[in-house]
Input
Amino acid sequence: MERTQSPVLGRLARLNPTAVFLAALVLVLVGLFAPGPAGGVLLLALAGLLVWLMTVTWPVQRPTTRLLRLLMLTLLIAVALVKLL
Output
């Protein structure tokens, strides 16, 4: 790990990828099935976390990966806004 990297990124790198995926899946499902604006707020919080992670990892991603991540993030934000309204 370089000196410029955040200690949070070091902790994230040590996490089990399957567990992180399952936790994110649970958050999305709870956000989708939660009634009213509570689900929208949860989805927007998850989107905020993903935006932060994307900004940190942007330079090392391939253009196709960037495009796919942007599309999925846009879909997540759109669903969150629909739930809020």
